[in-house]
Model the fold of this input.
Amino acid sequence: MRWGIAATVAAAAVGTGAAVLVIGRRASERLVHPAAAVRARSGPVQVLALGAGRVTFTPGPAAGRPGRWAVEWGEDGHAVVGEVLHRDGKGVTRRLLRADRGTLAAGTEVRFTPRVHTGDPTTALGLPFTATAVEGELGALPAWRLDGKRGTWVILVHGPGADRQQGLAVLPLLQRLGLPVLVVDYRGDEGAPASPDGLGHFGETEWRDVEAAVRRALDSGAGQVILYGWSLGATTVLQTAARSGWASSISSLVLDSPVLDWPAGARRSAARAGYRGAAAELGALAAEGRTGVDLADFARLAEGTDLRVPTLVLHGPDDPVAPFRAAERLAGLRPDVVSLQAFPGGDHAALWNTDPDRYEETLRRWLTPFL
Done:
């Protein structure tokens, strides 16, 4: 359905005039203010019982999803659960790997989240790092720097609603491979400069902050750089590789759950915020209008028109935000440079959680030729 027709249909379905504008603007807030995106991946789940190294939750899709997840509750409660040990109509029992903060007890309402590791590289993983800043065009961008013996650096770019902690899960592998790492924030993040209009631009301006990180790595002795991003952070990585004057120094890309079909992704994100059907359509249209996103440019990215380096795409066939078919299409159009690895059951930008061992082995095999 063409956008103009979609707008007419949505307006007729939801209302007219000022009411339509208000609904569209409200539905677009989560899209244009990515820092406000909700980290939790489920509604409340209740703890039914606790035992030695195990915890039982009320039954439901969140409690039974595969892999390794965090559960959070209250203001600071945080624990990590592993594989499903037993399930039936009464509950789901999982291995309790650790309880970091707060008291987990029967009756506690928790939410599942991918944030298995929290804090900084030292407090979360015991890895030494330097707190630093990258000088971007709008000002200083907070960053973590981890040293390594290799000449190729990895720059990690988080997705919307996340922060630098999103990269913690892959840091141990990158450090074992001897790769120096720069984990960088960008405009609009807490502690970073705001964009001039206060809105997120889906990578179309944020890529210049990633480019600043590339320059910082090269100035610090990097011979080449690997860009690694999640969700719209992966889209931002694609923008950087296509537009940057330092693109010749980028040797590879790793894209986890990239948003390649922007209209569909925008509608799905609005739906996740509680706006469905015509309201989600209006939210996507409002976000497009408020930010001036260039859909033609997104189409070029999605087709791999400007893609020049080997690219690993990690994606879930059941991704609720970024349609998997767009990743399949990119891999089909550019089989010369794109390798697509599917993670069935994986949530958006949380594929590591679904199968940490397979995810890390896939990443290790991909990175090894670039060492």
